[in-house]
Design a protein that fits this description.
By secondary structure, the protein is an all-alpha fold. It has helices at 3-9, 25-51, 69-85, 91-109, 131-155, 168-197, 199-204, 207-226.
């Protein structure tokens, strides 16, 4: 057996018929983390390549109304499916990731508000104005990110070993998980507080977009770390 076949064998097994290809949980975690971290970049590049447009939209979700909508829908849908099939190490992991996966599907089914007039040049579709749809989208996005923050802070940090017996790298990874969870929660709070307390600043600057980018980068980095792409125990 060649080295490439051995490497593939660690991810895919042909010993059981009727089985699925992706069984390795760490591989799934790496895929989820990578997709999350690349989403903002792919959206920006798609719009730049297609329309030579470099301005930042009000939020990541607003790319749904542009030529980058396919990228947005495909990546978020993939994240949703992977989160729904993620088993984790205990039932609580599965339930929390299922909540995240289901809420990310709902935010696709209930898009955010239409692009502002200043971005109509790149808008390829508009929807009927609906406050319910908009606020429901906000709620689903918040639940999605908060579920991921919970996983990072309370589930990824679990260990069968007592604290004093944990490896140095495990302790560092736990700090990373907690920092990523904190960044996600703070990003959500900054979006909400800036909209309420500083509406003029919120309307004139893409604060939502940058806070969402910060949140998804933190979520992706956390999952890459959990997938042993970073600081794996020797």
């Amino acid at each position: 057996m060649s080295k490439s076949e051995k490497a593939l064998g660690s991810l895919i097994t042909y010993e059981q018929t009727g089985d699925i290809a992706l069984k390795n949980q760490n591989t799934l975690r790496k895929i989820v983390g990578t997709l999350g971290m690349l989403l903002p970049l792919f959206l920006f590049l798609t719009l730049y390549i297609d329309s030579n447009f470099v301005a930042i939209l009000p939020s990541i979700s607003h790319y749904y109304f542009t030529r980058a909508s396919g990228v947005f829908v495909i990546i978020v849908s993939m994240l949703s499916v992977f989160l729904l099939i993620y088993k984790g190490e205990a039932p609580r992991d599965f339930y929390t990731s299922a909540i995240a996966g289901f809420s990310s599907l709902l935010l696709l089914l209930f898009p955010t508000d239409n692009l502002p007039e200043s971005f109509k040049v790149i808008s390829v579709t508009t929807l009927r104005v609906s406050d319910f749809r908009m606020y429901f989208h906000f709620a689903c996005a918040a639940i999605f990110l908060l579920a991921l923050a919970y996983m990072s802070a309370f589930l990824f940090t679990k260990s069968d070993c007592p604290v004093e017996q944990r490896s140095k790298r495990k302790k560092i990874r736990n700090r990373i998980y907690r920092c990523c969870a904190t960044i996600i929660v703070l990003s959500i709070l900054i979006i909400g507080l800036s909209k309420i307390l500083f509406p003029n600043f919120y309307d004139n600057y893409p604060i939502t977009f940058w806070m969402e980018v910060l949140a998804v980068e933190a979520f992706g980095f956390s999952w890459l770390t959990k997938g042993k792409a970073i600081l794996e125990d020797k």
